[in-house]
Amino acid sequence: MVETGHFALVLAFALSLVQMLVPLIGARTGNQRLMAVGGPVTVTGFALTALSFAALASAYAGSDFSVASVWENSHSLQPMIYKITGTWGNHEGSMLLWVLILTFFGALVAVFGNNLPATLKANVLAVQGMIGAAFFLFILATSNPFIRLNPAPIEGRDLNPILQDLGLAIHPPMLYLGYVGFSICFSFSVAALIEGRIDASWARWVRPWTLVAWMFLTGGIAMGSYWAYYELGWGGFWFWDPVENASFMPWLAGTALLHSAIVMEKRSALKIWTLLLAILTFSLSLLGTFLVRSGVLTSVHAFATDPTRGVFILCILTLFIGGSLTLFALRASTLTAGGLFHPISREGALVLNNLFLTTATATVLVGTLYPLALEAVTGGKISVGAPFFDLTFGPLMLPLLAIVPFGPLLAWKRGDVYAAAQRLMAAFGLALAAMLVTGLFINGASVFAALGVGLAVWLVAGALTDLAVKSGVGSVSPSTMLRRFLGLPRSVFGTALAHLGLGLTLLGIVGTLCFGTEKILTMKPGDTVELSGHSVRFEGLFPQKGPNFTEDRGRFVLISNGFEDGEITSAKRFYPVRQTVTTESGIRTLGLSQLYLSLGDENNDGSVVVRLWWKPLVTLIWGGGLVMMAGAAMSLLDRRLRVGAPAKRRKAAAAVLAESPT
């Protein structure tokens, strides 16, 4: 099975070369047969990559330690779920997952892109084949997951303990679906530049792929944040880690691309801007791949430390980023700029939104790469952390979030900002009331906390106002209003949900950072501690044995109104194979808030260091992410955004052809 997987990987590489060259030649020469080769080759390449991945997963599931990757990242005593997730819990396996998702998206275009012009489809698949060929070569040359060991070791070295968690089953695949999903947008952009033609229909084809990639990247970032929150035992949800930033930058650029594609589709404007954003978004995804795989960073996310791999990926970056930007520079002057619009309009609001988003992306990029550049040039090491990003990224977000509710209420081409402001008066009143209540009645609330709560309420109320206005609330009868509400396009609901989810996430961040409390103390069995109105009693440490670890599990009892209200457990785990100790946090969810505790070291007198946090509204951080994903999914259900031409339109076209005189 292992040799079959290796051979399938080599065949997939060979087919990627065919996919790269044959359709491209067909598009240049107008040869329909050569262009038609792209579809079957792309689907077959995906099938072979899936076979290769299945072979590697089978080796992990069967603890085949004759495979070097399995020996380095698995153990026979691991639970089966972690054996399987260990397939991508390492450099080699995660890169195979990367190309699996890349070929999957290419196969989707091949199967569902029948409504695309033949030349555009051929060029898109050819560009996708170029990306695939580069990464297949990278895997085979520097990161082969099927290398054998002879003689085969009896036992493996175990998976990194902090990766032995269910979050690993969800976080990397979702993140890669977002990262790699933007490759389709990149391929569409390069294909349009090769062809030298772009129009509103191009944006209509690109927008669903952007939505899919953005949706999964949102989920991947949210899942990664929650995984770090509960698994690492430090109680934080975001650390501005360079690798966290590497996933956040494509999300910011992808959000700008999504809004720009809307303007291009509706008004045939911002064509050049949309093309550039599509290129930059995937370029940032490639940059994230480089940061994780090159060894230039030391992070819980970073797998590779071999400089050969870093140089190889750097060459890939130079080829695709440099090549696409060069092509853009050569072709941009030949493309028409598109339709004109008044600054006060929905287009103007979306342009302003994109300016803030791209500036914020540049800020995060500078903060992430500056320490690396400084070390490369001078050898000195500095750390750029939360203070820098709070002072640069935060001020850019404040005006952006303030204008978000105005966009959907402005008309296309020429809008009336005064009329939009009138419709938002109720939302503004709610936001102002939330600010006053926060500032006057919540102990310890700062001006920034009140402003943050007001801004979050403003976003939520603004999203609901958009739905209310378009449903005719207050101006038509209830039955008519309900009929209008149910008849609204799903993309309208999607936009409202995305903005509402953003408001919920902001509310969770403000609640946790501004109103949370923390205590660090030593506790003996029987000791009780009070935290923000909650009482927790320590019952003691109890040793337990897991499949591949031992642990001291601390039991705590939550006491509410003098009565026991359930148990919270936290543990210190020891993995003997890796000689690693991890902290398993204890979390009790109370409404939208959480009581969070983690164990420290045990002292000689039997006491244990315990760290406790009360985190108000913290669940809204990830709940808002789920709502944003739901918004993207709702927009994808809009028939205007589905991949493929509507059947009615095809039937109408066929009828016109049948009735036309010969």
Mean pLDDT over the residues: 90
- Summarize the biggest pleated sheet: 5 strands, antiparallel
Provide the low-confidence segments as ranges: 643-662
Strand content: 5-15%
The succession of helices and strands, N to C, reads HHHHHHHHHHHHHHHHHHHEEEEEEEEEHH
Question: Which structural class fits the helix and strand makeup?
Answer: alpha+beta
Number of strands: 9
Strand order of the largest sheet: 2-3-4-5-6
Overall tally of domains = 4
The amount of helix comes to 55-70%
User: Shape from CA axes?
Assistant: globular
Count every helix, treating DSSP H or I runs of 4 or more residues as helices. 21
Radius of gyration using CA atoms only: 27 Å
Structure description:
This protein is of the alpha+beta class and 662 residues long. The chain has four domains: 164 residues, Four Helix Bundle (Hemerythrin (Met), subunit A) (Up-down Bundle); 182 residues, no CATH class; 91 residues, no CATH class; 99 residues. 63% of the residues lie in helices and 11% in strands. The chain is built from 21 helices and nine strands. Strands 2-3-4-5-6 form a five-stranded antiparallel β-sheet, with no helix packed on it. The chain has a four-stranded antiparallel β-sheet with strand order 1-9-8-7. Strand 5 and strand 6 form a beta hairpin. Helix 6 packs antiparallel against helix 7. The longest helix has 33 residues. The chain is globular. The C terminus is likely disordered.
